Amino acid sequence: MVSVLVVNDQSLQRLGLRMLLAAEPDLTVVGEAASGAEAIGLSAALRPDVVLMDSRLADADDIEAIRRIARPARLLPATGPATAGGPAPRVLVLTSTSHEEHAYAALRAGAGGFLLTDASPDELAAAVRVVAAGDAVITPTLTRALIDTVREQPAVRPIQRDVGLGALTERERDVLTAVASGWSNSEIAARLSIAPTTVKSHVSHILAKIGARARVQAVAFAYESGLIQPAA
């Protein structure tokens, strides 16, 4: 059962989202929040698998809320059956805008995916399941735009990080380069002559090593670390 915390500043919309999710046998809504600040506290207390957060993305408070939910400094004592030290919730952003610069900021803050507000109920339920499983949900158009945004940034010295390229094996660097080029797992497998399951394993290891929660965050790491140089 996937547990979900719904975050929306409109009570009727929160009710609608709760009803849509409750209709799915494998999804359950464990709480509701009317703001990012409230979501931070409830997320720490309830420890849902997924925080479904309605966001305008341009709001700095929303970006900070995503960061504090997805990457908490510490977890509060559980009020339910969850055990201390469990994984942080994954954040699925429900937004009416696909502006790549704001989406990029949210991804860097730790968001696990994006879904536009005009998505169907089936798409919403599927996205919650995908994010809960640890994968990313981002529309192809937004993924392409995000990659282009990173590529077009001025070339600067690589950002200093706690984890650098030295933490990755040579094969993991090859896979990360391919991911940053926008290749799918099947395309990477074909070009590197390895199995798709091996590609998926490499991607999981890369994300874990660099502290990322989505493929697009790995793309940002590839450019910021100097593995790939932005296009002139």
How many helices? The count is 10
Structural class: alpha/beta
Q: Total domains, how many?
A: 2
Record field, number of beta strands: 5
User: CATH class of the largest domain, please?
Assistant: Alpha Beta
Helical coverage, percent range: 40-55%
Query: What's the oligomerization state?
Result: single chain
Question: What does the radius of gyration come to?
Answer: 18 Å
SS strand fraction: 5-15%
Name the CATH architecture of the largest domain.
3-Layer(aba) Sandwich
CATH superfamily of the largest domain: Response regulator
Our measurement of the CA-to-CA distance between the termini, rounded to an integer number of angstroms, reads 48 Å
Mean pLDDT, as a whole number?
80
Form type: globular
Low-confidence segments, ≥5 residues, pLDDT <50?
Answer: 75-84, 155-160
Sequence of strands across the biggest β-sheet: 2-1-3-4-5
Structural account:
The protein is of the alpha/beta class. It has two domains: 2-138, Response regulator (Rossmann fold); 154-224, Arc Repressor Mutant, subunit A (Orthogonal Bundle), CATH 1.10.10. Helix content is 48%, strand content 12%. The protein has ten helices and five strands, in the order βαβαβαβαβαααααα. It has helices spanning 11-22, 36-46, 60-70, 100-109, 121-132, 140-151, 170-180, 185-192, 196-210, 215-224; strands spanning 2-7, 27-33, 50-54, 90-95, 113-116. A five-stranded parallel β-sheet has the order 2-1-3-4-5, sandwiched between helices. Helix 1 links the parallel strand 1 (2-7) and strand 2 (27-33). Helix 3 (60-70) packs parallel to helix 4 and helix 7 crosses helix 9 (196-210). The longest helix is centred in the last third of the chain and has 15 residues, at 196-210. The protein is globular, with a radius of gyration of 18 Å.
